[in-house]
Amino acid sequence: MWRWVRQQLGFDPPHQSDTRTIYIANRFPQNGLYTPQKFIDNRIISSKVHDLLYFLSLAIYTVWNFVPKNLFEQFRRVANFYFLIIFLVQLMIDTPTSPITSGLPLFFVITVTAIKQGYEDWLRHNSDNEVNGAPVYVVRSGGLVKTRSKNIRVGDIVRIAKDEIFPADLVLLSSDRLDGSCHVTTASLDGETNLKTHVAVPETAVLQTVANLDSLIAVIECQQPEADLYRFMGRMIITQQMEEIVRPLGPESLLLRGARLKNTKEIFGVAIYTGMETKMALNYKSKSQKRSAVEKSMNTFLIIYLIILISEAIISTILKYTWQAEEKWDEPWYNQKTEHQRNSSKILRFISDFLAFLVLYNFIIPISLYVTVEMQKFLGSFFIGWDLDLYHEESDQKAQVNTSDLNEELGQVEYVFTDKTGTLTENEMQFRECSINGMKYQEINGRLVPEGPTPDSSEGNLTYLNSLSHLNNLSHLTTSSSFRTSPENETELIKEHDLFFKAVSLCHTVQISNVHTDGIGDGPWQSNLAPSQLEYYASSPDEKALVEAAARIGIVFIGNSEETMEVKILGKLERYKLLHILEFDSDRRRMSVIVQAPSGEKLLFAKGAESSILPKCIGGEIEKTRIHVDEFALKGLRTLCIAFRQFTSKEYEEIDRRLFEARTALQQREEKLANVFQFIEKDLILLGATAVEDRLQDKVRETIEALRMAGIKVWVLTGDKHETAVSVSLSCGHFHRTMNILELINQKSDNECAEQLRQLARRITEDHVIQHGLVVDGTSLSLALREHEKLFMEVCRNCSAVLCCRMAPLQKAKVIRLIKISPEKPITLAVGDGANDVSMIQEAHVGIGIMGKEGRQAARNSDYAIARFKFLSKLLFVHGHFYYIRIATLVQYFFYKNVCFITPQFLYQFYCLFSQQTLYDSVYLTLYNICFTSLPILIYSLLEQHIDPHVLQNKPTLYRPSMQKPAQMTSLEGDIVRLDENQQNAIQINQLFTTKLKDISKNSLLSIKTFIYWTILGFTHAFIFFFGSYFLMGKDISLLGNGQMFGNWTFGTLVFTVMVITVTVKMALETHFWTWINHLVTWGSIIFYFVFSLFYGGILWPFLGSQNMYFVFIQLLSSGSAWFAIILMVVTCLFLDVVKKVFDRQLHPTSTEKAQLTETNSSIKCLDSMCCFPEGETACASIRRMLERVIGRCSPTHISRSWSASDPFYTNDRSILTLSTMDSSTY
Amino acid sequence: MTWSATARGAHQPDNTAFTQQRLPAWQPLLSASITLPLFFCAGLAFIGLGLGLYYSSNGIKELEYDYTGDPGTGNCSVCAAEGQGRAPPPNCSCAWYFSLPELFPGPVYLYYELTNFYQNNRRYGVSRDDAQLSGLPSALHNPVNECAPYQFSATGLPIAPCGAIANSLFNDSFSLWHQRRPGGPYVEVPLDRAAIAWWTDYHVKFHNPPLVNGSLALAFRGTAPPPNWHRPVYELSPDPNNTGFINQDFVVWMRTAALPTFRKLFARIRQGNYTAGLPRGAYRVNITYNYPVRVFGGHKLIIFSNISWMGGKNPFLGIAYLVVGSLCILMGFVMLVVYIRYQDQNEEEDDDE
């Protein structure tokens, strides 16, 4: 909407066309018919709030922008808008409270929010401001001009030197290299550290000087800006000698703002997207619009309170008019109205009375709730990043919080969807085995050893392989002789090997770190380079592993330059001309290269998943290879098939032409390319298959086991093939041997799939004690999802482990969406590490990125990023649990304390003729939520630990009870005998028994029931405050020893004092974790209230109109009765609550409460917690020393909650994870 | 897992108690074993306190008389009948006769009580000008708008003190006469009218405007008295320390009451022969009956009360303490039963639930 407003105001003109036309160096055509398009300048302006420095430096322009935009952002939030309305009502009509009472909190809230947003924005945009003012060189009027980055306009030619960051999105024109190529790293954009090669169009690549560039007349047509970093389509029309040459432009010629130039001395590029239209800036737009369940229930509660508010206002208004029907009440002689009041219209009076009541009661909607929640989330999320247990030492990475809005959702997860590669596994590929032409080989210590059914012939092979391995030691001269002496059939074999490994070392997109080839004019690659000195960079670790393996075998890829790939085969250099690369994509699941061999023949090498290669093969040992591939997969290895195809020159010409057409297409280029690829990659001849091992990450098994014990269903979604996936699943404990594994794979038709599903459903109902695991593959899944969604979901819900293999990225997201919208509306969490997991991470309620090797795409798009899968258990069981408890209590408490606050006001109306007289003074009204009661809850919501973190981590059952249906419980009782049979069943039974003991599952702390309890508690307390004070006053009996009387303000102050104390002590009752900070804020709040009141009442305030509160508080405190009444009322209020708590604990203890009992009773006592300061709190050291001297009880041994590995609680021992006596003794 | 300082990575979080969320903390548990003794102790303490409070409240004597003048309730009904209309009614006086069989222990406080009078009505409560009452000359002549319709007099003069509260100042007055011997003469009992208002109100909050030529009347020149008043504010009392805005009755009245039934202190009896209280004998209270309350269904009462350290007679606090204390003990017993019962169950096998 804001965008629309801005467009209407003419700030951002809507894009008129789908493409933009850019005249390089802004040389517009001379015929004058052309009106140049307008583009925005190259400035990065933060999207939300603007950090102060920037705001100041651009004051005039941004004031325009800043004030309305910020306010708009803030008032878009319903609560803020509501308070704005209340404020405006107060300004307009005569209301009981001054506009300040609601204006000040609103101002406070908005300021705090703005500061928070500003800080968050400032963190994100820190670098932009530097970049905006950075010096850049621009080609203008035939020379290089130094200017500031923000002055770059679309169409400018910019010169970038080595290691500089691109200031805008540029189309590469030329580099210092002849071929117009350059290397960049996009680490700051997507975290990928590998070097990427970008190339210029040949026509411009030759223009390497400013003078030459000045003569360039060219036009670029390209898309309007879009956020996708990896998509760019355009074309360049170059006018040379009155002739127009059209060249396609793709992502390979686009240099993104934020990327850095590497290994290239300088380049020239033309700016096409600038400022906020660069891809980098477009990617800054807030990506996560996820809302947590807590926020949703918060909104429900708000609506309920709004209804309470409005009904109270209506009741009051109606009663007021019933009461005032009689003149003696409406206008007694002592309280006459002015003429104006008498004559005003009745309807108008009615409305204004209603509004006045609304204003009077409006504090029931806690204004500071949102701001406190936001502060809590923002500050609380630091604890995740600070946690040493989530810090991965090897990679020096700590956990990252990308959005703090979902902290509590971590404590609510019911389904975990995890990627396999890089998430469960290390993604550190190690070449293990291969199958060449139907023979299986194993790599052992850099040698290929054949394995399989022909052990007799291994002797001969071994000698050959020995010889091959010698090549690595550059002793190829001797070994080459052994080649020639080999028997005939072996030469045949070698030829096959040769081709196989050639394919492996040619068919990839690996880069070589070219530190040594940095110089200009670095012709051919030095051929004396030893293989061990080469370092490969690849976006996919598989490729790297394969190329390295080929190098170990003796076929070394040395590099590519100027469209040639150089491979040293057994020490002999061979140059292949690289004709085309058919890039990998996840739909085709394969990639190919077309090269021209030194002999001149044109070859295509293809590499890809066996399902995408084998059907395209027409030759080679297809069947044997297929068997081998399955065998590899069973061992949990990742397999790739390699195939090749030879083109005749005629065939190649056609391919070349079609490829060119597709690549230069402006519309539907991707579709066309896919078609051409389909056309090219066929009639392949199979060479063999490779098998690469991916090691499991540390403690994956334990983590998955713990997740399952926590009642979380773990689904593994992977693109790998069925056998690999199942074997990894088994090895990581996702499936275990006792599980009954159901399969839904290779379903070809709808009916077949439905039948299979029904069969599975039957099997599950027949045998419900044994746990079931389900394996689904991508094609069956899409069938199942298309027609039999319900049936499929039914089966899935009853399986404790589900494995989906052969999944496309979008399918992953679709599965999650399905679970999300299933009737139970479970909270889902997705973990992944690669670009293919992004869609699923964004789809799930909580997306977790693993900061792995496959770039940072997943981590960038996730809500939380962690270094290792095992950290998930602490993130969920400890942090998630804490955050949930904290925020839930925070929300409930906020509503509670505002009910306490406002209900006495409402009750008072019955005693003051519904005249809207406030019970409390305006200052108290204003400060109640801001000062008197805000800090204890905030500190509570940051520090509370109702259970020791170790216990939480080691008893995952505390997280969430099982999802099993209660109906199954009765049928299970007969099966209890089976309990001892195996542990898994025992765990399951245990989970069933805990079903009733809901602690935090299903948002139970924010369920309507709990909410009603708190609300009723609030009302009860309010009644006690009000009527306690009312009866104390009785018939307005003097409460002072000198017989003097109190007035209405003393009455209100009494109620208010009782309320502040009760509400604070109520918080203290909820607090289970008393650090010195809690003591400070809890007792400090009460003390502050007293000190403030004494101060406020002790002075005649010169700028206040009425001095109602003068000495009221002091007089109140000088009354003995008041003190007794305060104590009585506070105790009575809390009495109810304590009784309930104690009975609950005694009669129906939740598992949380039981865990609290079994906790290692730390020896810290109340006093100690106030005086013991932890080591490292240097600021408090002096106080500590002093206190120690005074109290003499703080010895360091008191601080005994160590987190060392020797702590028996800490080890992730299975014996602790299993059934504990505590949990089984419930029933 | 232990971390040594030497092996720290650049991004390694600090290992402090705060960042690792392991600040030393006291973790109390609200278990039955702790709350049980607490409940019993609290219960006993409350019952003890309750008894004390109850008896101290019971020891307070109160004597009240409704002199509104409903027909047949004494001689004030004459005045009441005359003053049916709106204020101000004609001067009228009546008397209340009572006798004390024994000493009414002192010090005795004389209150008047009004019922159904809504001093807490918002329109009424805001109708005052604290700046004017603090003696600010500028405010004296420019009362705030909240005072309307008692802001300016019909002749356009600013009203001092302005507003509905001041206008409705209670203007009945009482004098107490004691007959020592039956048939003897009535002797006036001295009423101490000083210090009936809060010390701070009288000394700090309320001030007369600065005297003009040593005269308070001149200081108030150019203002009009509230319409219901018979005399200007500077003639409220002949005592210069008790007139104008700092008239004690006026200050007491200006502290608006919280509830529609309220008492205000009129005088103390602690002088002369009456320091120990009111001795037994017959008494007469002479009432100047001015204040109309029957139009709004109100009542006027006159109350003699003595006072303990905790104020007037109000059994509520004592009873409430007794009730809460008993509840505590009761709950303690219930809890004890539950505790013992479930303790046993926990020791046995409790799968039967």
TrEMBL record, chain B:
Q: What UniProt keywords apply to this chain's record, in alphabetical order?
A: Membrane, Transmembrane, Transmembrane helix
Transmembrane residue ranges: 34-55, 316-340
What InterPro entries does the database record attribute to this sequence?
A: CDC50/LEM3_fam
| Superkingdom of the organism of origin | Eukaryota
- The keyword Transmembrane helix is annotated on this UniProt entry: yes
Which BP terms from GO are recorded?
Answer: positive regulation of protein exit from endoplasmic reticulum
MF terms from GO for this chain are: aminophospholipid flippase activity
Quote the subcellular location field of this record: Membrane
- Main localisation, per the record? membrane
The record's comment on protein family reads: Belongs to the CDC50/LEM3 family.
Q: What is this protein called?
A: Cell cycle control protein
Q: Could you read off the lineage of the organism from its UniProt record?
A: Eukaryota, Metazoa, Chordata, Craniata, Vertebrata
